[in-house]
Design goal:
Radius of gyration: 20 Å
Order of helices and strands: HHHEEHHHHH
Number of domains: 2
Shape: flat
Distance between the termini: 38 Å
Strand content: under 5%
Number of strands: 2
Largest sheet: 2 strands, antiparallel
């Protein structure tokens, strides 16, 4: 077993490595966005996401959607080009896109607090959060109003699951 000093050193090493990985992810997002701007190709995002096991993909996808000309197609499980974002942008070239994205707040600085993480792993808190999202009319994360029929089916399935569970 490691002693406290060794644990502290190990954690410091993890922190340093994680920062380097986060910076590399930010650089990849910026350069894929530059490539998307110039060539209309967002397939690099699919490769990036596949490589990010253990990383908060929600934060990465939000950053890509906000800055990187990519939209995640939930049905296909792949990114597609956000043509309207690309068409309405006035960057000189892909390098200008890279420079801009590297100047904005990186994706990893928007990490949830432990309080929010606790709510995400609590099923009841998730149900309440989903209720709030549906009330606002946005349940898919892309600003699209949900399919009411599909929502009713999912709610019925959730209700059945809750009823079949031992409740404390």
């Amino acid at each position: 077993m490691l002693n406290k000093k060794e644990i502290t050193k190990l954690i410091a090493g993890i922190s340093k490595k994680k920062q380097a990985v986060n910076d590399d992810i930010q650089t990849a997002i910026a350069n894929i966005a530059g490539h998307a701007y110039e060539h209309g190709d967002v397939t690099g995002y699919d490769s990036l996401i596949a490589a990010l096991k253990g990383t908060d993909l929600v934060l990465v996808v939000r950053h890509i959607r906000t800055y990187g000309f990519g939209l995640l197609d939930g049905k296909a499980g792949a990114f597609k080009l956000n043509k309207s974002m690309r068409d309405s942008s006035d960057f000189i070239d892909g390098q200008a896109v890279v420079d801009y994205i590297m100047s904005v707040e990186p994706w990893y600085t928007k990490q949830d607090s432990l309080k929010k993480v606790a709510a995400k792993v609590d099923a009841l808190a998730q149900i309440k959060s989903l209720t709030t999202r549906i009330t606002k009319g946005y349940a898919d994360g892309n600003g699209k109003v949900i399919d009411l029929h599909a929502a009713r089916i999912a709610i019925a399935e959730l209700s059945e699951a809750v009823q079949a569970t031992k409740i404390a």
